[in-house]
Amino acid sequence: PQAIAYALLAGMPPVYGLYTSCIPLVIYAATTSSKHTCVGPFALMSIVTGVLARDVLGPGASLEQHIETVLAITVVAGMVQLAMGLLRLGLGASLLADTSVAGFTTASALIIAGSQLHHVLGVPIPRGGFVPTLVSAARIALAGEANGAAVAISLSALVYILGVKRLGQRCCRRVPLFEQLQALLIFTLIARLAGLDVPRVGDSGPVPSGLPRFRVPALPGTLEQNLQLLEAGATAGVTSFLLTVSISRTFALKHGYTVCAQTE
């Protein structure tokens, strides 16, 4: 469910979230110095990548163009990270103060939460930064324009997830309870029984079988767009690296070990 949701955050078809949650996990598990971090679709990077692709293409781009641009950005981001590794630029991350890492992680969580407020309220919210989004959401809620069913289900699901997680920590730490998957199934069933509009399998069109073939993504048409694409890929690569190092160091500090930024 998380992988599908993260693909939607990037403006991609849901199946791409499944693609990106397979191969990276295997490669990262075999090479990482972190005992807790895993890689794959991540909420903040999905948002950043989607925004970068829209900035490159401009308004009026088709879904196919958006997909190709996102794929091209990820290729450039990977090349940037390979170059950083060869040049040993990862060592510079060791200069980051622990307070900076904690602030970066907290800010990421706030941005992710703000990006989901339109789903919680069940109504569109104008795109913007965290504070403007929060102000718009508060204005909608105070004006009574929010979708009551969406708010009730969102808050109930959040309480359920936190409650099951707390129960697991107290009673069965070694047994995963998959609280997010539980909430997805339970509240989808509740919404269905309540007669709410719940998407069904097939509503988004046919789901392709197997994995897509490897290919080189098509580049945007103009030289200016291609230069913007290179800049977007570099931004995505560096941001992804900082996120991974920040999260890895947060877990390492909590559990008493060190991570190698160059390996990450």
Quick description:
The protein is mainly alpha-helical and 264 residues long. The chain has helices at residues 2-9, 15-19, 23-31, 43-57, 63-86, 98-115, 117-121, 130-142, 148-171, 179-193, 223-255.
Give an overview of the whole structure.
The protein has 264 residues and is mainly α. Helices cover 64% and strands 0% of the residues. It has eleven helices and no strands. The protein has helices spanning 2-9, 15-19, 23-31, 43-57, 63-86, 98-115, 117-121, 130-142, 148-171, 179-193, 223-255. Helix 6 (98-115) packs parallel to helix 8 (130-142) and helix 6 packs across helix 11. It is globular and about 55 Å long. 23% of the residues are buried. The mean pLDDT is 80.
Low-confidence stretches: none
Order of helices and strands: HHHHHHHHHHH
* Integer-rounded radius of gyration: 20 Å
Q: Which structural class matches the secondary elements?
A: mainly alpha
Report the β-strand fraction as a percent range. under 5%
Kindly report the average pLDDT value: 80
Anisotropy-based shape: globular
Instruction: Give the helix tally.
Output: 11
The amount of helix comes to 55-70%
Give the total of beta strands.
0
- Describe the biggest sheet? none
End-to-end CA span: 26 Å
List keywords for this structure.
264 residues, mainly alpha, 64% helix
